[in-house]
Amino acid sequence: MEIEALAGIAHEPEGDPAGIVVVTHGAGGSRESPMLVRICDEWARRGWLAVRYNLPYRRRRPKGPPSGSAKADQAGIVEAIDWAHAQNIGPVIAGGHSYGGRMTSVVVAEGTPVDVLTLFSYPLHPPGKPERARTEHLPDITVPTVFTHGSADPFGTLDELRAAARLVGGPVEIVEITGARHDLGSRTLDVPALAVDAALRMSAPG
Questions:
Q1: Which residues contact 53 (CB under 8 A, 6 or more apart)?
Q2: What are 66-76's pLDDT values in tens digits?
Q3: Structure pTM?
Q4: CB 33, CB 185: distance < 8 Å
């Protein structure tokens, strides 16, 4: 199902949804990212309405990375989260891959309400430049947060991620994907299932 207002595609569960998940893509990708498709398929299997959507910069042009569009992209993420809340069908989980996850974490740190933040391959720093950490806003995140991260990700080691996760102001779970790089590809682990399991644990009452 197409969600035109979000440039999104919805994966619908068989019955009434338990809640809504909105996820977006990395700097070089789009809503058609195979990983986003698999994640949304998994959420729908678990009974949630899952939407993968394009960020504003991708809506403007079909290829290429974002350039100077952070504020507009963050506004697009707020629109997606607001849309999810407006459906009034349960908890709202938001996140994304790499750049999309980082932009989502920024709007959540600034107060946009979600029940769980789910971040895939969070880009802690540009490859080979650990001194350029993208962590200054993490202490302002107070909602439960799941980081799904590969052990061979050049945008941040697992040790670096663990240190960054300690900055987050809310509960955190790290899903470690052994051997995976930034795309989270794995021949041995079901990455979507592991990530969804962690987010559901975080969203459970009490």
A1: 3, 6, 7, 8, 9, 22, 23, 24, 31, 76, 80
A2: 888 999 999 99
A3: 0.96
A4: no
